[in-house]
């Protein structure tokens, strides 16, 4: 005969769990010996293992009680349903693991080839790696948001990377990251950025870029602000120079 501690050890649970199952009516409480201690037999071990297995599989305790009282066929059918659900969860978790692995493994596994080419182009131009990482994370969001438009946006971006004002824009952004909001040089850099943006826009009211809905543009803005905190201050400075936004740079409304 076993003590409650020995029962718990054989079944791979805690004594507290045994008492919990007693309280829920899942495991019958045995009689006590002459010393006042509960004593369990081998059948209690088997029953407790069944309870533990079902509970760990995610079966609600109320359902566990029903299954323990079911006949063999009903029990087998219910276990088959649990097994199918677990298999589906495993497949889903495996997909999540694969996605995480792609994100951690580098640009080429997280993004389409045409986007990787853009990131490599930025590095080749001498753009600060921190800016490249912000760009990469933005493309990851875009790929999830509208994967069918990535080829179109990538072609447009490659064409614009041949434009000197855009190159100067990226190079200046790299310098911005090393300055604080109170740094006077940040004001000078804001002037340079505003000049580059104006040259990019020409006679248009925007500086080109990717045409996305405002809510998603705001999400991408927050991504940039979190990754590169000086960007918030830079947006304020650019607004006084006639430009608003970040992911979607547009001229401030004219009076």
Characterization of this structure:
- The protein has 255 residues and is an all-alpha fold.
- Helix 1 (4-11) crosses helix 3, helix 8 (129-145) packs antiparallel against helix 12 (214-227) and helix 10 packs antiparallel against helix 11.
- It folds into two domains: 4-100, Multidrug-efflux Transporter Regulator, Chain: A, Domain 2, CATH 1.10.1660; 107-251, no CATH class.
- The chain has helices at 4-11, 15-23, 42-56, 61-68, 72-105, 107-110, 113-124, 129-145, 150-160, 164-176, 184-201, 214-227, 230-239, and strands spanning 243-244, 250-251.
- A hairpin with a 5-residue loop joins strand 1 (243-244) and strand 2.
- The protein has a two-stranded antiparallel ribbon.
């Amino acid at each position: 005969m076993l003590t409650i501690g020995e029962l718990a050890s054989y079944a791979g649970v805690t004594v507290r769990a045994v008492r919990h199952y007693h309280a829920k009516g899942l495991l019958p409480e045995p009689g006590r010996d002459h010393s006042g201690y509960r004593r369990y037999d081998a059948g209690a071990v088997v029953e407790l293992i069944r309870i533990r297995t079902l509970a760990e599989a995610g079966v609600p305790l109320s359902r566990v009680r029903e299954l323990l009282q079911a006949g063999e066929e009903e029990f087998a059918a219910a276990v088959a349903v649990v097994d199918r659900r677990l298999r589906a969860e495993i497949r889903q978790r495996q997909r999540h693991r694969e996605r995480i692995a792609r994100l951690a493994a580098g640009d080429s596994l997280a993004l389409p080839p045409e986007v990787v080419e853009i990131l490599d182009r930025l590095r080749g131009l001498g753009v600060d790696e921190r800016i490249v990482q912000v760009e990469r994370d933005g493309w990851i969001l875009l790929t999830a948001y509208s994967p069918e438009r990535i080829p179109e946006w990538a072609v447009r971006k490659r064409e614009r990377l041949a434009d000197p004002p855009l190159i100067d824009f990226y190079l200046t952004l790299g310098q911005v990251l090393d300055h604080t909001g109170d740094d006077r040089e940040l004001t000078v850099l804001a002037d340079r950025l505003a000049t580059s943006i104006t040259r990019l826009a020409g006679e248009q009211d925007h500086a080109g870029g990717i045409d996305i809905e405002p809510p998603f543009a705001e999400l991408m803005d927050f991504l940039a602000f979190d990754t590169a905190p000086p960007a918030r201050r830079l947006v304020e400075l650019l607004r006084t120079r006639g430009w608003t936004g970040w992911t979607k740079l547009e001229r401030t409304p004219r009076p």
